Amino acid sequence: MKKYLLLLLLSVIVAACSSSQKKVVLVVDNPMDIDRFNEIVEIQWPSIQQRLSLSDEDQIVVLDSIKQQVPYQIITEGSEQKTKLIFLASVLANGRSSYTVVKGKPHEFPSFVYGRLVPERKDDFAWENNRVAFRIYGPALEATGEISNGMDFWAKSTDSLIIDKWYKNDLAGIASYHEDHGEGLDFYKVGRTLGMGMTAPIDHDTLCLGHNFIKAEILDQGPLRLTFRLSYQPYPVGEKPVNETRVISLDAFSYLNSVINTFEIDTTTLMIATGIVMPENNPERVSFEPQTGWMAYAAPEDSVNGTIFAGVINPDGFSEVKISQGHLLGLCLYTVGNSYSYYSGGGWSKAGFANMDEWVKYLQMQRSKLINPLRLTIE
Fold it and tell me: What pTM value is reported for the model?
């Protein structure tokens, strides 16, 4: 009998301890009348740390409404401090979902994003998520005479992360990434252009292109968001030099990068243009709305590999969109020293977008989501 009472007392104590465990309940509201799945939401890390009394060594888990762990990431933005908690959320139309954060040991989730400098391929910086892949060119390539600060696009038909595999096989002569071996390929043409949605200053209606980056720094490396910073040598805009910095982020499940450009030049304002390269011999398959700030383009169809779609979203809108100097250009007046934020990326007819109409609908929907974000509050 005593043994039974002792066991009963212990179970009551354990239950009391469990129920009193500190937790933070995060409520995510969807203001739109569409279901939204696998979107990243974020909250300032100190608000979580303080409520859970976390030490630097403590770990957390994020649980959904049925107590299943969901992937998360703690952002540092390249500093030594934890700044934000981000996690994947899904919310039905006009609905709300609850997530709970507690101390605990998280499951090992696979990474959805990846990126690195590729010195073995002349200093490319390549990055990807579970939908698309991109690269941009570095100093070793410029030393060979190949100059481009545009963004390249790798068409993927797999959720797997393939950068390392494709580079390794290509450099070893096993399988060229310019041919589709069942996972996609690189058949986007960049050259001396802005490629898929990079930005450059305009001087007297002339697009002023910079050179390859000189430095690449990874600020956050997954599993849900990759962020890196690119620095460039000064280049001329008219008779004045400009310094440019780009901070690029790619989230899980997205076809679009977040891009933050900063330009420093001896003037107050600067006309800038975000551009998508358009080959001269291509029919103008474009669609855009300057005021709402989106542009779409379908590259020439490849009879074997299909069609690449490119797109840009500037939630603040463009003053003008025009076809000029081999690009579809979205123009806006920039205040020097400020951040210019927008989104650019691409899709593929063999992996998610059957035609231009579907790509345009995606861009329009993403713009709607950007101006109507999921709202996160602490309950």
Answer: 0.93
